[in-house]
């Protein structure tokens, strides 16, 4: 049986990540899913409702991925690199980060959606700060690293690389940025 709501979310995510919030309409989404525009309103009354559901689903996927990273390794740089590889699929598909695509249009977004996007990034910065702090404590992150500032730097570097490498060098360019980021965080050999 067809799960229309899931299909709508999946296709809307591709549209937002590729074109931005203002760059797609319910007509575009209806064409992508193969249904009538009116059918979309049955699942998502407004575009804002759809976008809020998109961010919630995206956030849930990331929560699961971040939890998995913490289980897979306790080494700080390896955790940061695993986090960075979550972005790589976007590079390979030519898509930006959903929340970054929304953040670009911050001034035109409904307040509830702006709040959800900010919460997404705040959560990631807090997670990265924890990883960096734990990495410093275990010796797997350079002692001179400021976890709060570096957490923001990691997000900024990866979001920037995602945007840039979709245009320039693709996955290889993104991997190069990720390697350089790891090198900045790794303790120096004595």
From TrEMBL:
List, alphabetically, the Pfam families matched. TetR_C_13, TetR_N
Question: Is Metal-binding one of the keywords?
Answer: no
* Keyword annotations of the record: DNA-binding, Transcription, Transcription regulation
Q: Which residues bind DNA?
A: 25-44
Q: Where is the HTH tetR-type domain?
A: 2-62
Q: What GO annotations for molecular function exist for this entry?
A: DNA binding
Which PANTHER family does its entry note? HTH-TYPE TRANSCRIPTIONAL REGULATOR YJDC, TRANSCRIPTIONAL REGULATORY PROTEIN
The protein in question is named TetR family transcriptional regulator
Could you tell me which species this protein originates from? Answer: Methylobacterium gnaphalii
């Amino acid at each position: 049986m067809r799960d229309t709501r899931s299909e709508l979310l999946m296709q809307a995510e591709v549209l937002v990540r590729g074109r931005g919030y203002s760059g797609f309409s319910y007509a575009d989404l209806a064409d992508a899913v193969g249904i009538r525009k009116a059918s979309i309103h049955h699942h998502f009354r407004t575009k804002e409702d759809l976008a809020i559901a998109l961010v919630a689903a995206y956030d849930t996927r990331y929560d699961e991925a971040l939890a998995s990273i913490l289980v897979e390794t306790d080494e700080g740089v390896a955790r940061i690199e695993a986090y960075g590889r979550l972005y790589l699929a976007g590079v390979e598909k030519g898509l930006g980060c959903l929340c970054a695509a929304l953040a670009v249009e911050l001034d035109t977004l409904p307040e509830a959606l702006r709040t959800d996007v900010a919460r997404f990034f705040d959560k990631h910065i807090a997670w990265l700060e924890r990883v960096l702090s734990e990495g410093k404590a275990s010796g797997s992150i350079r002692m001179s690293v400021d976890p709060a500032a570096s957490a923001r730097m990691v997000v900024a570097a990866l979001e920037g690389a995602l945007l840039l490498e979709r245009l320039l060098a693709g996955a290889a360019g993104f991997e190069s940025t990720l390697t350089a980021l790891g090198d900045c965080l790794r303790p120096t050999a004595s």
